[in-house]
Prior knowledge:
The complex is a heterooctamer, with two copies of chain A, two copies of chain C, two copies of chain E and two copies of chain G. By secondary structure, chain A is α+β, with helices and mostly antiparallel strands. Chain A has one domain (3-67): Alpha-Beta Plaits. Helices cover 15% and strands 21% of the residues of chain A. Chain A has helices at residues 16-20, 54-58, and strands at residues 3-6, 26-28, 41-43, 64-67. In chain A, the strands form two sheets. Chain A has a two-stranded antiparallel ribbon with strand order 1-4. The longest helix of chain A is centred in the N-terminal third of the chain and has 5 residues, at 16-20. The model of chain A has no long low-confidence stretch (mean pLDDT 95). Chain C has a single domain (28-274), classed as Thiamin diphosphate (ThDP)-binding fold, Pyr/PP domains (Rossmann fold, 3-Layer(aba) Sandwich). Chain C has eleven helices and eight strands. The model of chain C has no long low-confidence stretch (mean pLDDT 97). By secondary structure, chain E is α/β, with parallel strands linked by helices. Chain E has two domains: 5-235, Thiamin diphosphate (ThDP)-binding fold, Pyr/PP domains (Rossmann fold, 3-Layer(aba) Sandwich), CATH 3.40.50; 239-353, Rossmann fold (3-Layer(aba) Sandwich). In chain E, strands 3-2-4-5-7-6-13 form a seven-stranded mixed sheet, with helices on both faces. A five-stranded mixed sheet of chain E has the order 10-12-11-14-15, sandwiched between helices. In chain E, strands 1-8 form a two-stranded antiparallel ribbon. Chain E is globular and about 75 Å long. Classes of the chains: A alpha+beta, C alpha/beta, E alpha/beta, G alpha/beta. At the E-F interface, helix 4, helix 5, helix 9 and helix 12 of E face helix 4, helix 5, helix 9 and helix 12 of F. Strand 3 of chain D pairs parallel with strand 9 of chain E, so a sheet runs across the interface. The complex binds thiamine diphosphate (TPP) (2 copies), iron/sulfur cluster (6 copies) and magnesium ion (2 copies). The site of one iron/sulfur cluster has 15 residues of chain A, from helix 1.
Amino acid sequence: MARIIVDDYFCKGCGLCVDACPVQILELDMATITEKGYHPAFCEDQSKCTGCMSCALMCPDCAIKVMR
Amino acid sequence: MARIIVDDYFCKGCGLCVDACPVQILELDMATITEKGYHPAFCEDQSKCTGCMSCALMCPDCAIKVMR
Amino acid sequence: MSAEEKVVFERPHALLPVITNYCPGCPHGIVHRLVAETIDELGIEGETVGVAPVGCAVTSVDFFGCDMIEAAHGRAPAVATAVKRVHPNNVVFAYQGDGDLASIGMAETVHAATRGENITVIFINNAIYGMTGGQMAPTSLPHQITQTSPYGRDTTTAGFPIRVSELLSSLDGVAYLERVTVDSPKNVRKAKKAIKKAFQNQIDGVGYSLIEVVSTCPTNWGLSPQDSFNWMRENMLPYYPLGVYKDVVADGFANAAEAAAARSADCPVAHPEKAGA
Amino acid sequence: MSAEEKVVFERPHALLPVITNYCPGCPHGIVHRLVAETIDELGIEGETVGVAPVGCAVTSVDFFGCDMIEAAHGRAPAVATAVKRVHPNNVVFAYQGDGDLASIGMAETVHAATRGENITVIFINNAIYGMTGGQMAPTSLPHQITQTSPYGRDTTTAGFPIRVSELLSSLDGVAYLERVTVDSPKNVRKAKKAIKKAFQNQIDGVGYSLIEVVSTCPTNWGLSPQDSFNWMRENMLPYYPLGVYKDVVADGFANAAEAAAARSADCPVAHPEKAGA
Amino acid sequence: MAEKVLMKGNEAMAESAIRAGCRFFFGYPITPQTELAAYMSKQMPKCGGTYLQAESEIAAINMVYGASAAGARVMTSSSSPGISLKGEGISYMAGCDLPGVIVNVQRGGPGLGGIQPSQSDYWQATRATGHGDFQIMVYAPSTVQEMADYAYLAFDKADEYRIPVMILADGMLGQMMEPVLMPEPKDELPEKPWATTGHKNERKHNIVDSLYLTPDALERLNRERFERYEVIKANEQRAELFMCDDAEIVLVAFGASARIARSAVVAAREQGIKAGLIRPITLWPFPTDAFESVMDTARDFLVVEMNMGQMVEDVRLVSEGRVPVEFFGRTGGIIPTPAEVLKRIEAAHERVGE
Amino acid sequence: MAEKVLMKGNEAMAESAIRAGCRFFFGYPITPQTELAAYMSKQMPKCGGTYLQAESEIAAINMVYGASAAGARVMTSSSSPGISLKGEGISYMAGCDLPGVIVNVQRGGPGLGGIQPSQSDYWQATRATGHGDFQIMVYAPSTVQEMADYAYLAFDKADEYRIPVMILADGMLGQMMEPVLMPEPKDELPEKPWATTGHKNERKHNIVDSLYLTPDALERLNRERFERYEVIKANEQRAELFMCDDAEIVLVAFGASARIARSAVVAAREQGIKAGLIRPITLWPFPTDAFESVMDTARDFLVVEMNMGQMVEDVRLVSEGRVPVEFFGRTGGIIPTPAEVLKRIEAAHERVGE
Amino acid sequence: MARDLSLILAGFGGQGVLFAGKIIATAGLIEDREVSWLPSYGPEMRGGTANCSVTLSDDPIGSPLVTAPNALVVMNQPSMDKFDTAVVPGGVMVVDSTLVQRIPDSEDVCVCAIPATEMAEENNMKGLANVILVGKLFAETHFCEEETLFAAMEKCVPARKRHLLDANMAALKLGMQA
Amino acid sequence: MARDLSLILAGFGGQGVLFAGKIIATAGLIEDREVSWLPSYGPEMRGGTANCSVTLSDDPIGSPLVTAPNALVVMNQPSMDKFDTAVVPGGVMVVDSTLVQRIPDSEDVCVCAIPATEMAEENNMKGLANVILVGKLFAETHFCEEETLFAAMEKCVPARKRHLLDANMAALKLGMQA
Ligand SMILES: Cc1ncc(C[n+]2csc(CCOP(=O)(O)OP(=O)(O)O)c2C)c(N)n1
Ligand SMILES: Cc1ncc(C[n+]2csc(CCOP(=O)(O)OP(=O)(O)O)c2C)c(N)n1
Ligand code: SF4
Ligand code: SF4
Ligand code: SF4
Ligand code: SF4
Ligand code: SF4
Ligand code: SF4
Ligand SMILES: [Mg+2]
Ligand SMILES: [Mg+2]
């Protein structure tokens, strides 16, 4: 079972991970505003995550950890 | 009848004209020292001059005039 | 975390856990990570000295875990040259933007390359001066609108963009030149491979290596990070085609010097070893 | 002078009747004459502004009959650019040595070229710093002995020579690049043709033209003028092959801009005219 | 009819330069002067002028050199590190007696420093923009209006004396907006018979050159130039005297810091302290005459700068021990507050007694 | 045993630098300093050092910056126009507290000027090698022996105070030969824990940087640096006093012109004129203490320079009106003669009376 | 005659605090008062805060950098935290309460919190919260004549954006009435 | 003890006047006197003249630039024309009469003209006219002890050119006897 963790401390809500995820389970959380004023990314369905790391590869802020 | 005139005022005795003349009629005049301290070129047999301008083309100091 | 669960992707050690001051979606961050991963994988953090440019990456001195020097605008190649000369066993890289590397620093770039300095240069071509707020760069495209080309870059007055990889490819000191981008996971992987090779070359003494990363500047282009990549793909990649522009090893030489020697085989003074033959 | 006798060769008008301070046999003098002849033949002395370098030709401001500016070391392309911008109908040429053009002035050279400044550059490559007494130049050959490469240019520390014509050929602003020499009447004639074309290009608005003259420095090479040419032929010409390195007109384009447009045909932003199609 | 507009200092200098007949601008991006270049890039194409973003500050100043040699009114602008790079070029301009206007919108230094306002290039501007014996004229505007006015005047003075002229501003003045009344566009510019315009077979060739291999020739030229400098010193000093008539504590400040000093003087007067302000507008020539006019009443000079105290020496050179010279400064991009300055005035007031 | 050798000043500085542990030299050819670089290119390969002819003076100073950051003792040399190009780099070094030795073998300016000896970069050296609030130490040797000695010392002082140090020489000193006794080669050099040598996973990463985006941080650093400057001022002033004990006419001259001034003083004394000479050896810090020691007897300062009078201001700043300050100078590459100077001494003597 | 205004406007980059300041400065210009406007500058576009100082006065203005404002317009929390204590007694604070949660209350300072961003969205004035706040500030301080304010707005909306003028005017009025 | 020497050596570039000066300076060094040697410099290689100033003294040397020489060694006409009047009364002029035709005669100055270049060629010492002239100057002025002069020559001919030492020594002696 793969999963990712987005670290809100680093996430700037750029959305590059959202576009990169082949199974389209990432979204920006419009309800949350981080310390720095961003809407962070979150995984809306961990179960679908394949651990492909596409999201993490695209993340400019190293906010995503991928586990398998 | 072609001929050349070497202007001693400009000639620095570099000898490039001497090498360039296809009929080998140019020499440096070791007996003369110009104002600037050089042995100027001179034509030792005007009659052989073809007016080919090789000497003048090679002269870095525009010291040679060619007439035909 | 379950017992079998393994972390397969996380922040590399050589990238310090600090929030960068790059804009959201700026590729500088991606490339930083690739450099840091390379440093980790080659196990060279303790031997590496990075040279930061003047440009948005000026603050990268605070982000990389290795020793860092901030160079004057455009002079990173000169600084890196000296650092490498002082500590030939260190790994020295310069990280530069297009204004820094290809405009004010052009002479330093060409000369570090022709000297064949055994260093690695990471070159971020985002077709703009990011740090200063979006002026025209030497790599801005014809008709591209910037703060100082408000009617679009007019090539009749502002001239043509410089294609750095093409330009440097004629220089004998150069070992390896590749142009990559980071607009997709696939391209990120390719970019990583190129960067790693550029570092490995240095360790192997192959010669000067430069990786040109075709990049974006969402903030000054006035586009979202995604649209920036789209614009880049549509406009920059045709102008700056990806690919390897020089690779002396692939060409069958041990290093740049060997390749240079082969090229100049007809020149006697360059080949004293042949004099006796 | 007999009635029919005609002067078929004499000092061109644009070369003032003053003794130059070049050494005996220095090719600077030959090239000066070719430039002056070109100015005469094109009838442009009154419209021409020359930019002299810092190098042995620094004093050429006193030798050419046209208006002359002495530029800071390496900056002749920048100066020439500005003069041409102020008086677009003037003919502007820069005359530079290898230290001036290819070392300290590399950035200015590359940028004037990539901008496609409609100017003419005469580049004297004598593989040495003549004016300052014979230091290594960016074009000094491997193993060449100079004042600052007393054991011969060691490419492992001093790097490789720059081949300027090859380097600049990738730049879109460049219209015409040819490498010539002046070691024989035949080559002098060829050089003259190239120089004249480089001036004519400017008049026709074709773009940036540069003529590289492979040259000698008898004084600092420590050889006679004749032996210098021999050494040059034997060693420099294999390293710096003569020939045309770029000629957009020969390639079928009206000017550099057209050639550039053709090359970048796939880039949408560079071709707004295609947007409607 | 002309009316006041709100404009940034950087833009005001640009517009004013254009009105002064400047049609050539060569620059390289740097904060905090970017608006000047951006303005030029927008306006020059509209008025038939040339905006050219050079590959570096060095290229830019050498383009200025070339354009000036060719007879044009020409400007460049930069900020501190970029000005350092122009040093050789400015020295060449001086050595060839070429006019030209150079704007320095100063930021904190040394090195890359910061991008906030500073006045730490005072010495560079007044003593050594480059190597060799030479001076340039330096105007230090203190309002957006003055930025327009002196950018305009600078072109005239540059041509009149064939000298490079610097506008020494800073990030605060460059970035702020104030109402400004623009000077009228010029339609006639001075002839420049020395310029390298192509001789059209009508005159001997002109030469622009700073090389003189015989020391005698070089000395002669330098001395001639210094005679011209004496004329400039005699005719071109400018300073504003504020509340100086009976001033005992005389503040000395230029540019941005003079605004703060002025507020402090007003506050001090409200407390009954006889404070005044000398505001040098020309930093070179330094307005020594203005100082002589206050020597009778002055009991203390308080120099206020946004640096570590560079103008202090010029004040001491005028005072020559007659009046003590104190210093208060902030550096690194900090703008001093009137309150800080007022404290120093009060302290000085106490020290010199009633 | 060490013995004196005949050496050119340029070569003496090079050899002495190597003995001081300098193993990195980056330079760009320029007259009249070429022998220094030529010497380095010959000797460095022999002692495992690096001679690198940079593509320009700018590249050279930035290589110095890099090598210094990496912990090496490093030198560059140039002459006036080339020094102008190093301005930004020197400012960066100051802003990063990097040591390094910069040699300026001055020639006549401004612009390309000439190649004959001059002292016209005094202001540049002492006030503004570049932008921003900073100083560098400046030694002005006046013999070939001193060129060796101060080139040697410069490396120690540079490291001790983490400051760029300039040797301000000129074409005459650089070209002339005199007997010189070379200092002993150093085998131990100071540790530099701040250097970017690779952290070997044993310490936090070192950063060499001059960017401070918050003005407070930049001001703090500048103030710290200026405190260090005060220590230097207190400890590092150097001057030679020649026949000053009872001197009324006190000449002030440094470097090459001091040699001429010295001859003139000897000649004046032969005529019974009480002349003396203060020869500043450090130009920054300026040796103010030496001046205080002659204030009692001095009735006239005669500053003798090979420029248009740049050091005059420093002398006036010390004198503060107590003793009048006169100037005699030649510029453009002319070396003044003792006879010219003597005439000025005589005139001064007449003016101040018996 | 209105009293002197020493104003700081602060928020995130992109919220339009510089433009809001410019409207006010323009009002001062129209009334021929002494005016200054000074933005924070630098690489702050990158998600940092942006602010500007505006001064209207009848005397020559010393420092254009306002350090002791008698009016503050705030559009985000970091700016609130940074500037709240700077306001002088008797001063006024105009706060966008949609974006600023923690609003200090002070006895000496009049705090006017309006949900400007919400109001803008509700009224189809997206991106005009800044202008609404200017309207509110005007209502509280009357830093100029009302007609001047409208004239200033006309001057500030560039000719080619005339279609936006109406929306801006409406936002201004909305703020004045809030 | 020899008197102070203020010497100018002048000729064309390549004639070896700088080297000749160095021999004399080295002699001063060996005798532990104050010594200075200053060449003209610059782009004079190009057919111009070259010269150098040498001073030997018992007092510290002020200007190393000799403007009033008490000795002059001349190897070409332009230098003769340039320097002849500079020599102080009582001074000495050593002239290569092969190369210098117009030699002024002066009452105050001792003029020693020898055909040094001719002598060199005749004696198979091509290129050593400069050294012959040094020998002559020594004979006229005794600026040092004789053994010092020979020692100086040994110091000046670089180790790798030992084979040239003999020729140089011979030239020196030839000049001393001329
Ligand atoms: C000598 C000098 N000139 C100009 C600047 C201003 N400056 C800072 S960053 C920069 C260019 C940034 O563009 P680029 O190199 O493309 O990097 P990016 O920010 O796009 O990554 C400039 C011109 C400076 N700091 N120093
Ligand atoms: C800024 C600066 N650096 C260095 C010099 C010294 N200098 C004068 S000419 C020259 C180079 C000459 O070489 P090149 O350009 O090849 O011309 P050449 O004399 O060989 O024709 C140099 C380095 C200078 N005048 N200015
Ligand atoms: S690891 Fe792959 S599947 Fe999982 S969230 Fe990231 S991109 Fe989507
Ligand atoms: S790519 Fe990274 S920074 Fe961007 S939204 Fe995703 S997690 Fe956040
Ligand atoms: S013209 Fe031809 S033939 Fe006559 S001298 Fe010259 S080279 Fe010889
Ligand atoms: S080529 Fe010219 S300068 Fe040379 S020897 Fe012949 S005539 Fe004289
Ligand atoms: S300004 Fe552009 S290049 Fe710089 S951090 Fe932001 S997006 Fe990246
Ligand atoms: S030094 Fe060399 S390049 Fe210069 S004039 Fe002499 S021969 Fe020509
Ligand atoms: Mg960029
Ligand atoms: Mg050359």
